[in-house]
Structures are given as structure tokens and as C-alpha cells.
Specification:
The complex is a heterotrimer of chains A (343), B (596) and C (510).
Chain A (H helix, E strand, L loop, with lengths): L14 H12 L13 H20 L1 H20 L28 E2 L2 E2 L14 H37 L1 H16 L2 H12 L4 H10 L3 H14 L3 H8 L4 H37 L11 H7 L8 H29 L1 H5 L3
Antiparallel strand pairs in A: 1-2
Helix pairs in contact in A: 2-12, 3-4, 3-12, 4-5, 4-7, 4-8, 4-10, 4-11, 4-12, 5-8, 6-7, 8-10, 9-10, 10-11, 10-12, 11-12
Chain B lengths: L3 H16 L4 E3 L6 H4 L9 E6 L16 H10 L4 E3 L5 E3 L4 E8 L2 E7 L13 H11 L4 E5 L6 E3 L23 E5 L19 H7 L5 H12 L3 H14 L21 E7 L2 E6 L14 E6 L2 H9 L5 E2 L6 H10 L3 E16 L10 H10 L2 H9 L21 H6 L12 H10 L6 E8 L3 H14 L4 E8 L2 H4 L8 E7 L8 H4 L13 H12 L3 H17 L3 E14 L2 E2 L18 E2 L2
Parallel strand pairs in B: 2-12, 15-16, 15-17
Antiparallel strand pairs in B: 3-4, 5-6, 6-9, 7-8, 10-11, 11-12, 13-18, 14-17, 14-18, 19-20
Helix pairs in contact in B: 4-6, 5-7, 10-13, 17-18
Chain C lengths: L1 H27 L13 H15 L5 H16 L17 H36 L4 H14 L3 H21 L2 E3 H19 L3 H24 L9 H20 L5 H24 L5 H23 L3 H26 L1 H7 L19 H39 L2 H8 L4 H39 L4 H10 L3 H29 L7
Helix pairs in contact in C: 1-18, 4-5, 4-14, 4-16, 4-17, 4-18, 5-14, 6-14, 6-16, 7-8, 9-10, 9-12, 10-11, 10-12, 11-12, 12-14, 14-16, 15-16, 16-17, 16-18, 17-18
Classes of the chains: A mainly alpha (343), B alpha+beta (596), C mainly alpha (510).
Chain lengths: 343, 596, 510
């Protein structure tokens, strides 16, 4: 979907210009990431640089709330029903049938707080819906993070190579990117899902990652294009540093901000992509489950047993929201311009 | 707090308003309620019906168009000698004409079309229409091209099925005849179900579009068929195959002049998947005359149908696989919507791979599996919450919705049972079969269906305790895998019962095309020969009792339950009645009325 | 410029070509085209397999099959010659007519949603940028992230249940208790107070005024039966005309130049007179008449405002045209609203449908038919708009902040230019540059989103074409869908580049 795409597209002719203005601003901010390797002075400040970013990030209340929420969801999902054979603290399993208790209504009460037997209720076969939702959350998180990781690796590699080496390599890689970017993510994912959905969650996620790296590649390339012209790269070249060293030691650390921010967007996009594919009947199939599958299966329960529809929905929104806020916080943390605006 | 004062002020103002909050503003005056409480004469001119897919063609007899959503429309725009009624049995349509069996050997039936019966363009319905139907459905016009894989020869007319018509001799007659005799070379058990709604297509249109003259009551076409004139018939057949097809998703109708109707309604227009039929002013009959001016078929997928009905976008819905939630959601809407439940002829069952070497080769293993499947539990979970009358299905060829179900079941004691899982019995059967290790069963189901997944989960839950080890096998392409030996050990899916006597043959006989588990039993084969050739309805029941007894004794498969059926409609509607057959709820839509 | 466009066109062509190859092979390898025939038997099965094989060229190997499809597309590029079909679907029907049918409703949906999201997103984005780190800014940030995070069909299902069905029930007998009215007033007051901001005193005043005005307005609308027979009425139009004149003047010229304000008011007067005249003319017009009237009105306003504008002729005339167009829009909305009671009656008293893109057999005036379209658009548009809206707001905000920190803005402020001039003339224009690229991506993204929306709301559009095609492993319709979406993506990208050059004089295209 368009989430990845909403980044400023740095392949535009104007980019060089905006980078120039950016540079002029950077000069009056101590410890901007871009001045990191510039002088010896920076060596001593390198540590405080990371600290600065951390500080900025933790000042961002939304991001802080987001990361708290995400960690909570993570811990809840993986500790409650356990994972990969390791048992969790919740005594029910998502695929065990049981008698239905009180028509499967949720037993969760907030005041006084009590989980009860089945906090999120039970589905039609009496499966514990809390365990089922947790299982779905695990699946969705695994899918989302694999997609994010794959998109990050491919996107960064393609973007870095294209941006650094330029010439034919760049033309070739960027045309491939253009080809894939022409097809809307949902469309290409739907076509791919038909082929790999039955192969299991991990291959499914890997393939989704393979089709969602394009936006990231463009952004990384844009960063590389501007950074490779900077003085510190010139000086590194002049002392005979290898391309590998320049890429990994000098340029890549300065693009971390863009990469991380785009990856968070890819992750939140992947959560929603999985949901959309489930709706089209192209996602995870039973007996396994995912959040998208859970809400799709219980669509007709909205007015009847709303908890079946709303709980997984709340988790989808919670995760996506948290990731988006984290991304926003990271953007602010890595980009000194944003915080400076306060007048 | 900075906002403290704001807050308290807000609270104050709310409080002040609360004091005067007992009244309300707005609302419509009640003057219009007087008009709605009017008498019977105040009928709406339009009734809108939801169908899950847009109709694909006016001619529903071809292989490509033989689909339920075409039948839904045909019920209104076509008529013939008989149709399936709410009882699941055939009912004669005396508006269209009459028929009687005049001989059993050879099977001969005399048909008389109503003198006044005409197509909606005024052309009489007569011999040429009948003869074209025979020509198209009998498979007697091979093109000479054979299919490489199957070796079957293609026919000029791509009919969906040649059952019955292939056994029928060419129908003799002259142009303009309203009477004809159908003479069968071999007896055919379902002869009554052949000349039913949707069969007859306007021959004069096909002739004209195929380059023949329609004058003289279709004499040219009749000659071409009688003389088997391939050159003349080829364009006619092409038109029959595709000329009545609609564009995908029905953005518009072809020229209505090409679509004359023989039923109480005729096609009027289509927009974006919504089809409108209006009363046929040339309809001659009285019994089935349309009661409401306009009927609209609106494409609404099943999942969205409840909300569409609640919002009044449609007046009638008939969702195909209703769940507990569907029913409760409909009931929650309140008294504006009436909900009817019943059983359909569609049923769920588990087929077993019993080829030599397969898991279920041994009868004892099949019986053990049947014993541990919690059929009664499934009915409790999936059927009775929708249809309280629902029960476990014990027969293959009859469903509880049919009158003869109980009679046949009484005659097949081996088939009887309450469907409660009997784990002890299953265990001992497995022991008898000499199975000491858990029997591994890969159970295939459609990956897109949560219902099937739930059914498999129930089977696994129970049978794993009895000595089986079930592995759920979701497949997106399950239907293509059905006919691949070894692709599955057990599979759960549905069959749609037709209410016909002979149509199930290929499911049960040795080497039958739909006999996916490789079942073979000589007695069953010979019983089917008797059934298919039998033309006396009286004899069918004992024959089928015997068949069911055999199928149960040899544990052909495990039948689970007949799927529940829901029809919901605006309470303003009168006359809606469920029909368990594939004819669908519109079977009597001509009689529906709606209070406006 | 020409060289740039030519070069981009050639590159775009090859990119599209490669993308179609990718898409084609993905589609045909996504499943078994005969999957649905597994349960069938007899001649039906053989005949269907034969027909399908012929229609989809399944007897041809995949690579030559792709070229056959390409050839079908080629026929459409060459004028004259062999008829253009875009190939056949699996039933043997030509794809092109299906695509043409599908495109109509989908484009209506996508364009309306994009325009709405763009306008709302940009306005809100700019306000949040101006009020950075205010409560309003935080609320909008939260809301847009929330919208970002909503699964489209989950939202759509909720919209149907709680917006359409419940709103219809309410519209059938529109009334609120006084308590509800008061609560709505309070909520509106809070929103306004947050938006306008300022010190506590100012917020209180804004809250009070907005709350009372909203509650009173709502009360009046209810007791006058506005929700049963809506419309602006003559007085409403007169007030609106004056309001529009003042608003546009404030935004585009400021009040320092009296003559411009006078000219704007005159244009509003002329437009109002036009409204009075049009009452009879517009009972059942068609699009041609409507457009012609708008053009005439715009010309008259241009002339009148220009004459009154005196020394500021050009500026005044431009504002005159803007006012004329705004008023025309208002008149159209008014007429549509006036058509509501009759249309509602024809829809059985439940005007907002949950399914379909138009009513069947609707016979009515131009206004009724278009209102019917609009009412069918409401739900899917809301669903699509809400999600794009979030993107536009975030980006406009970031972009506007970016620009407002530039030195030239500081310079403009230092020169003593009014805040209005700085924001509208200097900042806004430059902030829009990145948004053009965003639009290019978003449009294609929304087309993708339409796949879901159409399914939920029962529209027979391109999304359905695609989903049905994918499910049937039928490349014809899938590729037709992709041709449109891909071309839109490529084209919009190119347009964005050109718009860049147009908006930012420092860029030259080469």
C-alpha cells in the first residue's frame, strides 16, 4: 500500500537542492548525524550523538507510548500461550475445543479487574478466544517483522549499490525498482499470495517482503546519492579507503535514520496487508490463524458476538498504531530539523 | 490545571441543559403513518431480491451457464411442464401444459402445450422450440473434433448435461404442433424432471440469429434438425451456446428482442449487476401470473446480505451457507424482517480414500472412523442453532427435507443412528483391524472455508482419542485435488442434492467420475443400473432403501448433515416460501407481494 | 521540456512492458485455472475445459501465451486495423468492454476519494503545521495515525452498520433530545476551541460561541424539518454568498485593499443574482447546460469584479472567478439537497445504500440521478478518504514545517509582509511540491485499496475484475486491471515530475 511511498521521493531532481538547504541548516546544529565523520571533533562526540538521538526519541511522548504498547503486546502474545513448544502462563490453547460457557461471552471484567475463564470469550467450537487472538497476534507480528526485515535488507542493498556505484548499475537496479513499484503492493501481494500462502507463514512473509522493498530502495538511494558527494566521503576516498569500507563505515551509518523509519512503515503496512489478503481469501489458512483471518472469519458476528470481531481488530490497530508512533518518534529523533521548529 | 475553569463551566452548562433535557427537537409529523396503514390495495410495485452472483446468461442450459443464479431468474422468465416445489418434489405447471405417460415399454410420454402459450414477443410456443431443445441437449451433433485428453467427442451444442435427452429419440412432429410425444430408447428414471423450467429457449430467435427464416413456425430450423443439416445448424448452435450470454457482471442486457420470455415476467434491463424483470403482458396463464409489477435482482455477496436487508437495499435474501451469526443477526433486526429456516438438499460429508493400499482400504478402519466422528455434535454446533429442526443425516440419496427420507431410512437399518461419537466402538474396531499404532489421516478441506476447518477440528478432537491421528490439510485447490489418488486420505466437502433419482450414479458406481475414494461394490453397481432404468416412482423407494443399506454396510463414506437454509425477507412481503432444491427461493416469486 | 517528456514516455513504456511481464507470469502461476471443475462430471466438464482452453490459449506454452496477450494489447495501440479486445477472459468474452464498464464506477470512486482526501488533508495539514505542538496538532497526529492503522474492510463493515443503517433509521424520523443537542454543542465547542487555540480566555470565548451556535443551529435545523427537506433556501444562499466573498478575499488578498473586497462582494452579488435566475433554468438540466451556465457566470463575475477592482483589476477579477465557481458549486449542492425528499421516498425512506453503485430503474431528474450517485458514493468514499486523508495530513504538515523553517520565509517575515502573504504566497506554494509526488503514489494506492472497498460495498468495478480474475487464475481481466493501474502510476509519476518543474522554478527538466 501507499504507506511506504509517502516518503519524499529522493530520486527527484529537486532532491539535491533540498539536501543542500538541509546541509546549510545542519551547520548550525551541533551533532547533526551528517557531520559525524567530518572532523576529529566528531570522534569524541560520536557517543553523544547516539545519546542525543535516544534523548530526542524518549522525549517524544507518542513514540514512548508506542514502544511501551508494542512491547506489551509482544510480551503478552508470546508469554501467554508460549511459542515454539515453550509453554506460557495461560492455561488454555488456541486449538483445543471445549464446552461453551455462557454462550461464549467474554469473562473479562475491568472493575474489579478479573480475567475469568475466557477473557475474550469463546468461538463457536468453544476455543478460548484469548488464546486464539494471542496466536493470531504472534502470526501477524511474525509476518510483519519478517516483511519489515526482508524489505529493509533488500531495499537497503539495492538502494546502497545503486546510489553509490551509479552508472549502469544504478540504471539497472532503479529500473527494476520502477517496474515493481508500478504494481500496487496489494495487487502484487495478492498474486504472490496465491502461490505461497499454503507454504506456511514464514515463506509467505518472506515473499511479501520480496515485493515491498521498493519504496525503501528509492529512499536509501537518494540518501547515498547526496552523501557520496560529501567532503568526508571525498577525504575517505583520498586516503584510499575501499568502497566496502566507505559504504559500511561512512555512508551507511548516516542513512540509518531513513532506513529505520521506512522499516517501521513497512512493518505497519505489512500488518494491514496481511489483513487485506485474508479478506480476499489469500492469507493464512486454518487451522492456523492470524489477526486478519480472525476478523474476516467473524465479519458476520459484528452485531451478534462483537467480541469476536472487535478484539482482533483492536490488536491490529494497536500494533499498527504503536509502530507508526515509533516511526514518527524515530523520524524526529534522527532528523534534527523537526525538533528545531518550535519557536 | 489550566483547563479547570473551562471544564467546570462546561459541566455547569451541561447541567443546566440537563434540566431541560426531557424533550426533544425535530422528528417527522405522523401524518404519513395514516397512508401506510392502508388496505391490501396499497402494494409496492417493486420487490428487490439479493443474489450472490450476477446472472451470466439467458440460456442456462449450456456447460458454461448452468448455475443457480441463472435459475433464480429463469424461475420468473421461463416456464415448462413441471418445476420443483417447496416440498422438494416436482409439481406440474398446468399453465404451461399437460403431460401423461402413455407407455412403459418403450417409455413414452405425451405432452400438450397450452393453446395460448406464447413467447413474450407474441410467437407461439410450439414444436420448433421443443425440437431445438432436444437437438441441443441430446448430444447427437458431434463436431468430429475429439478432446485429446478425454477422447470425448465435442458436440455442436455445448449442453451442460445430456442425461435423459441422450436416451430420447428425436421428437416427431410438424411446424406449429402444440402436441408431441417423447419416446425413449432406454427407460430413464428422471423423465419427469427433463421438461422443466428453463429448458425451452425461443427457437425462432435462434433460427433468425443463425441465419434461418423463422417464418412458418420455424419450418426451416425444423427441416435442418430433422435432416441433420450441419451447415445450417452450426450458426444456430453457436448462437445457442453464446448468443444468450450476458457480459461479465451484467453491466447491461443484450437487445431485449433477443430475450423473449415464456414465464410470468420478462427481462427488462440490467445496470451494473442489477437485473430487472417486469410483468410479461403476453403471459397467458392465471395460476402463475405475476402479482408485483417489477422484480429486481441485485448482486450482493452473501457476507454483505444481512446488512443490505437490514438497510432495505433488498427485500429478500437467501445466503448460501448461513451460520449461527447470520441467524442471530437477522433476528436482532427485529420485526421488520421475517426469518425462515429449514434444510436444504445440500449436505456435508467426509469421503474416504479406500483404494488398495490407502488408509481406509479396510472396512473396519472406515467404520471406526465413522464411529468416532461426532456427527451429533456437529449438528448441535452448526445446524440446530440455525434450524432447530435439523438433525444428523443418515442417508446419501435423500435428505430430511424430502418426504421419502424417513421411509427410505426405515428400510435401511444399517444406516440408522444418532450420530453420537462412540469412541469405545471406534477403538475396538481399530483393534480388530489390527491397528496398534495411531492411524494417520490427512484430512483435506477448502482452505477458504472456516466452517470446513471447524468440522475438521471437531473430527480431530474426537478421533484422536480413538486411535486416529488427524492432520488437517487445508487446500486452496482442493477441488482439483479431489480426483488425484493419494492427494488426501479423507476429505470433507458438500454435495448439492438434486431431488432427482438417477443423478447420483457417478458418485457411487465403480469407476464413477465423482467416486473420488475409489469405492467399488458390485451390488451397488447393479442396483444403480436398476434405479437409473426404472421409470416407476413407486419402485424407487425400495430400490434406494436397498442401496442405502449397502452403502451403510460397506461404509461408502460418512455423511454428516444436511446444511441449514435461511431465507430472510422484509416483513412487508407476503408469499415467500423456502425451497430446499436448487431451484431456489424464487420458485414462487410470481406470487410475492409487498405492502408499500 | 519536450525532450524530457519524450524520454520519460519511452522509459515508462518499457517499465510498463516489464511490469506486465512480471504480473502476467505471477498471475498464471498463482493457481490452477480448472480448479473449480473438480467436483463436476460428464460432458459439462469436458466442454468447459475445451472452451476454457481455447479462450485462454492454455494449449500454448506460457511464454508464447504472454506474447499472444501482448499482441491483443498491441491491437489497441494501433489505430484502425484489427479490433481491440485486450484478449479474452476464461469464458471467451472480450475483456475490453468489461474494463470499460468497470472503469466508470471505479474512477468515480477513486477520483472523488482522492480529491476529498487531498483537500481535507492539505487544509488540516497546514493548520497543524501552523499550530505545531498544540493540542490540535497532537489530536490530529493521533487521529491520522489511528486512521493509518485501520484495516480497510474492518472499518467498512463498521461504517455500514453504524453509519448507514443507523443514520438511515435516524433520517426516517430525525430528532434529537435536547440533551443530545447540548452534548453535540459541547463537543463542537471543544473542537473549535482546540482548533483556534490562543490563551485561556480566548479559548473560553471560542468554546462558548461555538457550542451555543452549533446547538442553536442544530435545534433550528431540526425544528424546521431541515433533515426532511434539506436545502439552503434563498436566505441561506445570500448569507453564503457574502461569506464566500469575505473568505476568499481574506485568503487571497487581505482586507487592506478595499476595492478588492468591494469587487468580491459585487461578484458575490452577481452570483446570487445568477442563483435567482437559475432557479427556473436548472429544474432538470444536463451537464452541458450546467457547465455552460458556470462559464457564463464566471465570465460575468470576471468582468464585473475587474471593473470594480480598479487599480487591482487582475487580482479582483481572479477573485471574482473563484467566487463564481464557489457559488456554482454551492448552487449545485443546494439543488442536490432539494432533490433529496423525492429521492428518499423513491428509495423507500432509506436513502443511504450499503451496496451497489447506483439504483436500478431510477427515473428522475438530473438532480435525483446525481444525488443517487452521490449517496451510493458516501460510504466507500468515506472509507477510502479517511485512510488517504491521514497520509496527506502528515505529509502536508511535514512539508509545510520544512518550508516554514527556510530562510526565505524568515526573510519574508522580516520584510514585514503580513502573515497571510507569507503563508499563502511563499510557504504554501513550496510546501505543495512534495505533495504532487505523494499524489502520484497515493492515486495508485487508492486504486489498490478500491479492490477491498468495491468488494465490501458490492461495486462492480475494476477491483472486482481483479479479484475475480485472480481467484479464477484468469490473466485477461487481471492484466486489464493492471494496465489501467500501472499506466496511472507511471503517468502520475511523470505528471508529478512536470508539476515539480512548474511549481519550483529552480528545477529544469532535461
Amino acid at each position: 500500500m501507499s504507506k511506504n511511498d509517502k516518503q519524499r521521493d529522493d530520486s527527484r531532481p529537486s532532491v539535491e537542492l533540498s539536501e543542500l538547504t538541509l546541509l546549510s541548516q545542519d551547520s548550525d546544529i551541533a551533532g547533526s548525524p551528517r557531520t559525524r565523520d567530518q572532523t576529529a571533533r566528531v570522534q569524541t562526540e560520536a557517543k553523544s550523538q547516539g545519546k542525543l538521538i535516544r534523548e530526542r526519541f524518549f522525549r517524544h511522548k507518542g513514540a514512548l507510548a508506542g514502544i511501551t504498547l508494542l512491547v506489551l503486546v509482544f510480551v503478552l502474545a508470546f508469554s501467554s500461550i508460549g511459542f515454539a513448544g515453550i509453554p506460557g502462563w495461560w492455561d488454555k490453547e488456541y486449538d483445543v475445543l471445549a464446552d461453551r460457557f455462557n454462550e461464549g461471552r467474554p469473562t473479562l471484567t475491568l472493575w474489579p479487574f478479573s480475567l475469568g475463564e475466557h477473557p475474550f470469550g469463546q468461538d463457536v467450537l468453544g476455543r478460548d478466544y484469548f488464546a486464539l487472538t494471542m496466536r493470531g497476534t504472534q502470526t501477524s507480528l511474525i509476518i510483519a517483522f519478517i516483511v519489515g526485515l526482508v524489505a529493509m535488507v533488500i531495499g537497503t542493498t539495492v538502494g546502497a549499490i545503486a546510489g553509490y556505484f551509479r552508472g549502469w548499475t544504478e540504471a539497472f537496479l532503479m529500473r527494476i525498482t520502477d517496474v515493481v513499484i508500478t504494481i500496487p503492493t496489494l495487487v502484487i501481494a495478492a498474486a504472490v499470495a496465491g502461490i505461497v500462502a499454503k507454504a506456511g507463514i514464514v515463506p509467505f512473509a518472506l515473499f511479501l517482503g520480496v515485493v515491498t522493498w521498493t519504496g525503501l530502495a528509492r529512499l536509501v538511494r537518494g540518501e547515498f546519492l547526496s552523501l557520496r558527494e560529501k567532503e568526508f566521503v571525498e577525504s575517505a576516498k583520498s586516503v584510499g579507503a575501499s568502497s566496502t569500507r566507505i559504504i559500511f563505515r561512512h555512508i551507511l551509518p548516516n542513512t540509518v535514520g531513513v532506513i529505520i523509519v521506512s522499516t517501521t512503515l513497512a512493518i505497519s503496512g505489512a500488518i494491514l496487508l496481511e489483513t487485506a489478503l485474508s479478506y480476499l481469501g489469500l492469507g493464512v489458512s486454518a487451522p492456523d490463524t492470524s489477526l486478519g483471518k480472525a476478523i474476516n472469519d467473524n465479519r458476520s458476528a459484528l452485531t451478534v458476538r462483537p467480541w469476536l470481531f472487535l478484539w482482533p481488530g483492536a490488536f491490529i490497530i494497536g500494533i499498527a498504531l504503536a509502530v507508526n508512533f515509533i516511526g514518527d518518534g524515530l523520524r524526529d529523533a534522527f532528523d534534527p530539523k523537526q525538533t528545531r521548529v518550535k519557536q | 490545571m489550566r483547563n479547570k475553569r473551562t471544564m467546570s463551566l462546561a459541566a455547569l452548562s451541561i447541567g443546566a441543559l440537563m434540566l431541560s433535557a426531557c424533550g426533544s427537537a425535530g422528528g417527522t409529523s405522523d401524518s404519513d403513518s395514516a397512508s401506510s396503514s392502508g388496505s391490501d390495495e396499497n402494494l409496492a410495485s417493486t420487490i428487490t431480491m439479493a443474489i450472490s452472483q450476477a446472472p451470466t446468461a439467458y440460456n442456462g442450459n449450456t456447460a458454461a451457464t448452468n448455475a443457480v443464479y441463472n435459475t433464480y431468474v429463469d424461475n420468473l422468465t421461463s416456464s415448462a411442464f413441471a418445476a420443483f416445489a417447496a416440498s422438494g418434489n416436482l409439481e406440474r405447471n398446468e399453465d404451461f401444459g399437460t403431460y401423461e405417460k402413455t407407455s412403459d415399454d418403450p417409455l413414452t410420454v405425451k405432452y400438450t402445450i397450452n393453446e395460448d402459450a406464447v413467447w413474450s414477443d407474441g410467437t407461439p410456443i410450439d414444436y420448433d422450440d421443443v425440437l431445438l431443445s432436444w437437438a441441443a441437449m441430446s448430444g447427437t451433433h458431434p463436431t468430429g473434433e475429439t478432446d485429446e485428453e478425454t477422447g470425448a467427442e465435442a458436440d455442436l451444442f455445448q449442453a451442460s448435461s445430456t442425461n435423459g435427452f441422450a436416451q430420447l429419440k428425436m421428437i416427431e412432429g410438424e411446424a406449429g404442433d402444440k402436441e408431441f410425444e417423447a419416446v425413449f430408447e432406454d427407460p430413464y428414471a428422471d423423465w419427469e424432471a427433463m421438461f422443466t423450467t428453463g429448458l425451452f429457449m425461443p427457437a425462432h430467435i435462434a433460427a433468425e440469429q443463425g441465419g434461418l427464416s423463422a417464418d412458418g413456425d420455424g419450418a426451416e430450423l425444423i427441416d435442418a434438425i430433422k435432416n441433420d443439416d450441419r451447415d445450417a445448424l452450426t450458426p444456430v448452435a453457436e448462437f445457442w451456446n453464446t448468443g444468450w450470454a450476458y457480459e461479465a457482471d451484467l453491466p447491461s442486457l443484450p437487445d431485449p428482442a433477443l430475450l423473449p420470455s415464456s414465464g410470468p415476467y420478462k427481462l427488462d434491463n440490467a445496470v451494473n449487476g442489477t437485473l430487472t424483470v417486469v410483468k410479461n403482458d403476453k403471459y397467458w396463464g392465471e395460476e402463475r401470473e405475476g402479482q408485483t409489477d417489477t422484480m429486481v435482482f441485485k448482486t450482493v455477496v452473501d457476507e454483505e446480505a444481512v446488512q443490505a436487508l437490514q438497510n432495505g437495499d433488498v427485500d429478500v435474501i437467501d445466503p448460501s451457507s448461513p451460520t449461527v451469526d447470520t441467524k442471530t443477526a437477522l433476528e436482532q433486526i427485529g420485526e421488520t424482517v421475517t426469518v425462515d429456516t429449514g434444510q436444504s438438499l445440500t449436505f456435508s460429508h467426509v469421503d474416504l480414500d479406500q483404494r488398495p493400499g490407502a488408509v481406509f482400504e479396510d472396512l473396519k478402519v472406515r467404520q471406526a472412523f465413522a464411529a468416532c466422528i461426532p456427527r451429533a455434535d456437529m449438528v448441535d454446533k452448526f445446524v440446530t442453532p440455525v434450524d432447530p429442526e435439523g438433525s444428523v443425516l443418515n442417508l446419501h440419496e435423500y435428505q430430511p427435507a424430502q418426504e421419502d427420507y424417513q421411509t427410505v431410512l426405515d428400510g435401511a437399518p444399517a444406516a440408522q443412528g444418532d450420530g453420537v461419537a462412540d469412541l469405545e466402538k471406534a477403538k475396538s474396531l481399530l483393534e480388530e483391524a489390527g491397528k496398534t499404532e495411531p492411524v494417520k489421516v490427512s484430512m483435506m478441506f477448502a482452505s477458504t472455508s472456516q466452517l470446513r476447518a471447524d468440522q475438521v477440528a471437531l473430527v480431530k478432537d474426537s478421533c484422536d482419542q480413538a486411535g486416529f491421528e488427524i492432520t488437517p490439510q487445508p487446500e486452496a485447490e482442493w477441488s482439483a485435488k479431489l480426483s488425484q489418488p493419494g492427494a488426501w486420505d479423507a476429505v470433507v466437502f458438500g454435495w448439492a442434492g438434486s431431488g432427482l433419482v438417477a443423478s447420483g450414479q457417478s458418485i457411487y458406481v465403480t469407476g464413477g467420475e465423482q467416486n473420488f475414494g475409489g469405492y467399488t461394490n458390485e451390488k451397488v453397481d447393479s442396483l444403480w443400473d436398476d434405479i437409473a432404468m426404472n421409470t416407476d416412482a413407486e419402485q424407487v423407494v425400495p430400490l434406494k432403501s436397498e442401496l442405502e443399506q449397502m452403502l451403510a454396510e460397506t461404509q461408502y463414506n460418512v455423511v454428516l448433515y444436511a446444511n441449514p437454509n435461511i431465507t430472510a425477507y422484509s416483513s412487508k412481503l407476503e408469499g415467500v416460501e423456502q425451497n430446499p432444491t436448487q431451484t431456489g427461493v424464487t420458485w414462487n416469486a410470481y406470487s410475492w407481494t409487498k405492502q408499500s | 521540456m519536450f525532450y524530457f517528456i519524450a524520454k520519460r514516455t519511452v522509459i515508462s513504456f518499457f517499465i510498463m512492458l516489464a511490469a506486465t511481464t512480471l504480473m502476467y507470469f505471477l498471475t498464471i502461476s498463482s493457481g490452477d485455472p480448472f480448479e473449480d471443475l473438480g467436483e463436476t462430471s460428464g460432458p459439462e466438464k469436458a466442454a468447459t475445459i475445451a472452451a476454457r482452453t481455447a479462450a485462454m490459449n492454455l494449449d500454448v506454452a506460457p511464454i508464447p501465451r504472454y506474447f499472444l496477450w501482448l499482441q491483443d494489447v498491441g491491437h489497441c495501440l494501433v489505430p484502425g486495423g484489427i479490433s481491440c479486445t485486450l484478449g479474452q477472459d476464461r469464458t471467451g468474452a472480450a475483456v475490453l468492454p468489461q474494463l470499460e464498464n468497470a472503469m466508470g464506477s471505479t474512477l468515480r470512486l477513486v477520483v472523488v476519494a482522492t480529491v476529498l482526501a487531498l483537500v481535507l488533508g492539505v487544509v488540516v495539514g497546514i493548520v497543524t503545521a501552523i499550530r505545531q505542538y498544540s493540542t490540535f496538532d497532537y489530536s490530529i497526529t493521533f487521529v491520522s495515525f489511528l486512521l493509518f492503522s485501520l484495516p480497510l474492510f474492518w472499518l467498512s463493515t463498521l461504517l455500514k452498520q453504524y453509519l448507514a443503517i443507523d443514520l438511515n433509521t435516524w433520517l426516517d424520523n430525525p430528532q434529537f433530545s435536547y440533551l443530545t443537542i447540548a452534548l453535540i454543542g459541547v463537543v463542537a465547542g471543544v473542537i473549535w476551541a482546540v482548533v483556534v487555540g490562543g490563551d485561556r480566555r480566548r479559548r473560553l470565548v471560542v468554546f462558548a460561541v461555538a457550542a451555543v451556535a452549533t446547538a442553536l443551529g442544530l435545534y433550528l435545523l431540526l425544528v424546521t424539518g431541515w433533515f426532511v427537506t434539506p436545502g439552503f433556501g434563498v436566505i441561506g444562499m445570500l448569507v453564503s454568498a457574502a461569506g464566500i466573498a469575505v473568505l476568499w478575499t481574506a485568503l487571497l488578498a487581505g482586507f487592506r485593499r478595499r476595492r478588492v473586497l468591494n469587487a468580491a462582494l459585487a461578484a458575490a452579488g452577481v452570483s446570487f443574482a445568477g442563483y435567482l435566475v437559475s432557479i427556473q433554468l436548472l429544474n432538470d438540466p444536463n451537464w452541458l447546460v450546467l457547465v455552460a451556465l458556470v462559464v457564463v457566470l464566471a465570465i460575468i463575475c470576471y468582468v464585473v469584479a475587474g471593473l470594480i477592482g480598479g487599480p487591482f483589476r487582475a487580482q479582483a477579477a481572479r477573485i471574482g472567478v473563484v467566487i463564481a465557481v464557489s457559488m456554482s458549486l454551492l448552487i449545485v449542492v443546494d439543488r442536490l439537497l432539494q432533490a433529496y425528499p423525492t429521492l428518499s421516498a423513491k428509495a423507500g425512506g432509506r436513502p443511504i445504500p450499503t451496496t451497489g453503485s447506483q439504483s436500478a430503474n431510477l427515473e428522475g431528474t438530473f438532480w435525483e440521478i446525481n444525488l443517487d450517485y452521490a449517496l451510493h458514493l458516501i460510504l466507500p468514499t468515506i472509507a477510502l478518504t479517511l485512510i488517504s486523508f491521514a497520509t496527506y495530513t502528515r505529509y502536508t504538515r511535514a512539508s509545510q514545517l520544512d518550508v516554514m523553517n527556510q530562510d526565505y520565509i524568515r526573510t519574508a517575515r522580516a520584510k514585514g509582509l503580513s502573515e497571510r502573504t507569507v503563508l499563502v504566497k511563499h510557504a504554501f506554494r513550496n510546501a505543495m511540491i512534495p505533495i504532487t509526488t505523494l499524489m502520484a503514489f497515493d492515486f495508485a494506492g487508492v486504486l489498490g485499496g478500491a479492490v477491498i472497498t468495491e468488494q465490501v460495498f458490492g461495486w462492480n468495478g475494476m477491483g472486482k475484475l481483479f479479484v475475480d480474475g485472480i481467484n479464477a487464475v484468469d490473466p485477461g481481466p487481471v492484466m486489464a486491471f493492471f494496465l489501467v493501474v500501472g499506466t496511472a502510476a507511471v503517468l502520475f509519476n511523470m505528471l508529478a515530475d512536470i508539476a515539480y518543474a512548474f511549481l519550483d522554478p529552480r528545477i529544469t527538466l532535461s
